[in-house]
Amino acid sequence: MATQVIVLNGGSSSGKSGIVRCLQAVLPDPWLAAAIDSLVEAMPASLRSSSAGIDFAADGGVQVGSQFRELEAAWMEGVAAMARAGARVIVDDVFLGGAASQQRWQKALGGLEVLWVGVRCEASVAAGREVARGDRGRGMAASQAEMVHRGVVYDLEVDTTHTESLECARAVAARVG
Amino acid sequence: MATQVIVLNGGSSSGKSGIVRCLQAVLPDPWLAAAIDSLVEAMPASLRSSSAGIDFAADGGVQVGSQFRELEAAWMEGVAAMARAGARVIVDDVFLGGAASQQRWQKALGGLEVLWVGVRCEASVAAGREVARGDRGRGMAASQAEMVHRGVVYDLEVDTTHTESLECARAVAARVG
Amino acid sequence: MATQVIVLNGGSSSGKSGIVRCLQAVLPDPWLAAAIDSLVEAMPASLRSSSAGIDFAADGGVQVGSQFRELEAAWMEGVAAMARAGARVIVDDVFLGGAASQQRWQKALGGLEVLWVGVRCEASVAAGREVARGDRGRGMAASQAEMVHRGVVYDLEVDTTHTESLECARAVAARVG
Amino acid sequence: MATQVIVLNGGSSSGKSGIVRCLQAVLPDPWLAAAIDSLVEAMPASLRSSSAGIDFAADGGVQVGSQFRELEAAWMEGVAAMARAGARVIVDDVFLGGAASQQRWQKALGGLEVLWVGVRCEASVAAGREVARGDRGRGMAASQAEMVHRGVVYDLEVDTTHTESLECARAVAARVG
């Protein structure tokens, strides 16, 4: 059956969004990107630094509150509805809750053909790329590198530590039905 | 009944996104922004300059093709699903098709409580703001200023020609149930 | 004598950068923009939140330290050198020190033909535009609106409270020799 | 003698700006970034798509005209003046003219202690990173990969093909006097 949703999960600075853009370039059909970063951008500015919303600590820790969770749950339903309406969607997320995050997506995406992809990157390399980007708080990459994969089950894993985004995207594309 | 979706329609550089941010700041509950510009960003780069996708002409004209229409239709379903799942959503769109665009939204948002808002700005003023932004092709503001409102029915209209975004947002917020 | 440098001074969200882009569009010769915001972007990330660099307080207050001052002084010399080498330059600055800031520029720009322009905006309106932008800390617009003009002498003042950027730019352009 | 200017030269998508941010993070003193991309941003919008300014062809070719050259020459003088005034500066440039571009910088930076760094990246890898970025015209990376290094003499070369930005930055930092 044809893949309807590709879910990429990985820590901050693991290279997910680069893989998304390469997937959009190499897949023959048009795929829509749905990134958790875009959801955060779509929230009121006040939620981007609040305990009810999402809070980025100085050490790289990220805490989300009840209002964030409610909007995120509705967003997941929206992404599922886009796919059911015929759009091919690539989700770019950070499973802060590991297996529990995957279960939330599995519930929202029920009945859809999903390809689950883990995007790994060695913590020290991701931390270096965080410095090179310059637009992220220091510490997120290292603190999330292992945590987001705990208990998560994938169809495929790619590792950007020594592999370019485009090559990772080609490996994912080869698994798209 | 409580408003679930606010739809802002207006031409390029009419000031919609500023009103969205002000609405997010003045409304007591958290509202999510769903902007047509973000949809365009979420599409493959190849669709952003193609006849099947969206094409920006040198004179400010905008043409959309079949692949754009398909992704847009699925996005509308997704926005509706987010609202049905409990998120309050502010749509920020440019009705290139006027009344026909509104009908597509009406169909997608069926059963939801929607506040329709027209965002007007005199063509010459919008054209000047287009120059001041510097990130948009010249001519879009003027060509869209009247066109996008043709045949569209609103609950409320605001005009940014002589009224600040925050004041417009307060007028809209006063009508939110 | 031909104007070599235009210095725009105004508080945060007073509309300076929009006027710069309009000036670049309406002036017949090519003019280069030199913005204090770009200087801050060019500094190491660590200086953008440090007492030795530049520190943005939660109430909108801005403090700059010794390392910021040193880089800023060198930048002023660089801007002057660009103008002496034949580039026409539009400076977009926030005179946190009022008259003292102007004196630093006067010293750096010695021998050049400078047009000094004050960009004013009523504090309440600038504060509303700060909300509409959504990318600046709240409070900067209001706290800087009057402060940056204290003791500063201008060739020309424009006020964006009720006048569009393009119209302000035309008023400035009419004074460029 | 202490290094006053670091000049990084490399093709589009070779990884220069990531190395700049890492250098700013690892060097003990504050260094200012001066990027050719920022110069292009500082020019009038009309020059960014004109034969007198800078023109990006569909095949990745870049042509610059007389007005661009004049502003660029003045910018080089400005960068040199910043360094002479005491700022440590990292230049991030693309030597479209190879050795001739280096000679222009050598003339502007006369008397200053300069560290010349070549940033290499295999054309095929740079082309893949161009796709992953998604914000650059396709073809620039491949067409510039070799061309920009022709006849240029370096104190040090780094290659981002298999080496992370942070590691490259550490190699450069070790040579800073």
Using brief descriptors, characterize the structure shown.
7 helices, 177 residues, alpha/beta
- Average pLDDT, all residues of chain A: 96
Rg of chain A, Cα atoms, Å: 15 Å
Global outline of chain A? globular
Order of strands, main sheet of chain A, comes to 2-5-1-6-7
Alpha-beta content class of chain A: alpha/beta
Q: Which residues of chain A form runs of ≥5 with pLDDT under 50?
A: none
Describe what this molecule looks like in 3D.
Four copies of one chain form a homotetramer. Chain A has 177 residues and is an alpha/beta fold. In chain A, 41% of the residues lie in helices and 19% in strands. The first copy, chain A, has helices spanning 16-26, 36-42, 66-84, 99-108, 123-133, 140-144, 165-173, and strands at 5-9, 31-35, 54-56, 62-64, 88-93, 114-120, 156-159. In chain A, the strands form two sheets. In chain A, strands 2-5-1-6-7 form a five-stranded parallel beta sheet, sandwiched between helices. A two-stranded antiparallel sheet of chain A has the order 3-4. In chain A, strand 3 and strand 4 form a beta hairpin. In chain A, helix 1 packs across helix 7. The radius of gyration of chain A is 15 Å and the shape is globular. The relative contact order of chain A is 0.25.
